[in-house]
């Protein structure tokens, strides 16, 4: 079953970083060792975000321990990506994390360390919200876990088969809207809808989706069950469509 799910995903959509895909590229911003002379205690300047401050759809800027000046950030980051919102994800995949790929939109006015990978390619905010939601979905996390043990490399991310806006425009808009909701508050119904909507994009059967959900034992059972119920309820409609 695993092989069938992965092969279908690859056949459906081009790689995220490919010319026929999003042409998306990710990279690190600052290095906590090489750039430490430019770091200062938090409370002044631009907060420096570490991987542990990123949760699905959210960035905890208040817990930043260090900062840097806007002048140093402009000099160290060329082009100055910190002046715009950009999609970011954690580098390290811990066994204690509910999911492997954890992403959020970094707001303008902050920078990140080497434990975070940030989108280097300029994309509209709606597109970044869509990709953020895809990254945090259980189906895409399932695909990532086929390749990842400890570090979520840019090579892994840029090879992910991800739908383009033109592939599924209605789903694109809905998924981006769900990302906005989940960035503001925890919403069980929105999470369930997101997981089910992404499973639909990858044309999973209900049995395949249940199998995917079962590979995430640390995700609360009620969240997984809600997504499965929602998906199963629309199975007839999908198969007839």
Structural commentary:
- By secondary structure, this protein is α+β, with helices and mostly antiparallel strands.
- It has a single domain, classed as Alpha-Beta Complex (Adenine-n6-DNA-methyltransferase TaqI, Chain A, domain 2), CATH 3.90.220.
- Helices cover 42% and strands 12% of the residues.
- It has 10 helices and 10 strands.
- It has helices at 2-12, 70-76, 125-136, 138-145, 154-158, 169-184, 188-201, 206-214, 221-233, 235-240; strands spanning 26-27, 40-41, 46-49, 54-55, 58-59, 66-68, 86-90, 103-106, 111-112, 116-119.
- The strands form 3 sheets. It has a 4-stranded antiparallel beta sheet with strand order 1-10-7-8. It has a 4-stranded mixed beta sheet with strand order 2-6-3-9. The protein has a two-stranded antiparallel ribbon with strand order 4-5.
- A hairpin with a 2-residue loop joins strand 4 and strand 5 (58-59).
- Helix 3 crosses helix 6, helix 7 (188-201) packs across helix 9 (221-233) and helix 8 (206-214) runs antiparallel to helix 9.
- The chain is elongated, with a radius of gyration of 18 Å.
- It starts with a helix and ends with a helix.
- The mean pLDDT is 92.
Q: What kind of oligomer do you see?
A: single chain
The CATH superfamily name is: Adenine-n6-DNA-methyltransferase Taqi, Chain A, domain 2
Give the averaged pLDDT, no decimals.
92
How many strand units?
10
Total tally of structural domains: 1
Instruction: Report the CATH topology name.
Output: Adenine-n6-DNA-methyltransferase TaqI, Chain A, domain 2
Share of β-strand residues: 5-15%
Numbering strands along the chain, what is their spatial order in the largest sheet?
Answer: 1-10-7-8
